[in-house]
Amino acid sequence: MWLGLLMGSVIVLFFISLTVGRHSFSLWQTVQELLAQEQSVYTLILIELRLPRSLVAVIVGATLGLCGAAMQGLLRNPLASPGILGSSSGAALFSVIVLYFGFHAISPWLLPIAGMAGALLAIVLVYALTGNDSTITTIILAGVAINAIAAACISLAINLAPSPYAVREIALWTLGDLSKVSLTNLWLMLPTTLIGWLMLIGCGQALNALSLGEQTAASMGVNVARLRWRIFLATALAVGAAVATVGAIGFIGLVIPHLLRPLVGYEPRRLLFASALGGAVMLLLADISVRLIPSQIPLQVGVLTALVGAPFFLYLIVKLRKELP
Amino acid sequence: MTETLLEARSVSVTMGSIQCLNRVDLSLKTGEITGLIGPNGSGKSSLLKAMAGLQKTTHGSVWLAGKNITHCDSRERGKAMGYLEQNGDVHWPLPVKRLVELGRIPHLQGWQSPCEQDQRRVEAALKQTDTWHLRERTVTTLSGGEKCRVLLARVLAGEPKMILADEPIAALDPAHQLMVMESLRQFAAAGGAVIIALHDLSIAARYCDRLALLKEGDLIIKASPNDVITEARLASVYGIKATLRRDENDCLTVTPYALTDEAKLLSP
Question: What's the burial of B261, exposed, middle or buried (CB within 10 Å: 0-12/13-18/19+)?
Fold first, then answer.
């Protein structure tokens, strides 16, 4: 039932997202114009701006929810996030480098490609640091180190930026923004995102087995080392593509799996799909909200998810503390 | 007719610089409960893990149905054996029935959900371990004894040919200890093979068909309980003095009452 409700919400919010913006027009009428192959300002806005924006919101939200659920299931830790191993910050750093040197003026494709490369490089570095047989703790520590290095380099880029415009561009980009996405961005992020999704969806049964610990899961036929790297790689591909396209959007991957877990009976396999839908709902809601909130300077969507997500996270911690003996 | 299901051949395990097992030979036969006994750190868990294919051996090999376990398909291995971990943790507050369903994982493909036949197996396992009434409860609300029986139900739901259990009754009260051992006896009587690490020597003597005694990674003896448990051996392996009493069925009860003089010298 919950899945149906989430799916319905995604569809409804998607259509609302198509209608909300600076210019208001009838969606139905514009679609009819499109079908009649007439071109107007509104058909352009719909096809070139709002459709990619809404689709990217669904895809990025789903990616963050799905990857968060997979990572929490793998690490058996409700506080794990998709970026825990540095893929988000790796993607952010490489994108910032492109912005810093102005490479994106050469080709707009360079920004997302660099982001994906950064995410993959972060995971490759974690692998190189830890090898195949290391414990989860060692892997997380390597991720913390990679995250810290990437954050330091981003700060350095902001510090040394040649002009206030560059500072603003870099800083705003790291806050997450859906307003500039185009159909080109969508096509570019789609292949790696889909590969990441497919790799993760096949992990459900193994994640269920991991509820009983690594030894027991291995005794049930799960190759734990292979599962680990499969999830890390899938997350790097999908989250890398997401961060490279819209910047770093926090808290969705952390909060959504946590929120939906009781609704799916705490089963990691069922949580994957539910979290993907939940992530899409949350990002669509946030992106619709930033367009509706009256503000002189447009609000970045990542700021809103953090503003809503962080207090909610605090509430979860307090609740968890009460539940523990 | 008994059949050998699993065989450790001259198995050694080394962790870092510590030799946990030293060329141990042991086989599991249908219809039998084999007890692994020995002091803490004697290599019981390492042997169980090696036999379950979860621990790399530094020497020797483990054979499952005539095939080296390292060459076995991991799913087939998962179907053949149920491994009950020491202090088995459950990381999410799963409902009991769903936890027991996890035992069916080796039989499920990719996204497949448990079918009616799987559900029937789960129900049977819940009833067999007397946990049917707990099926709607959350695993975090169970007592130690209830959780142990539910984890055993998870293993039974997988319909394994053998169960490898690592001290499953260590934290249980006497009644629950007997309940778990009775379930394992039923499993063996139905043609399964069981290997279980135990600290309670009386329980080991009462329920196991054979005992394997380990000390510092060496297999000292494998034989019937009456042959393995002697006062001299308890003194030399465990460093304890104990009274051994045999009941009318020739079943041993072991009551330790003091450390040996050598053990006293070593204790702080």
Answer: exposed
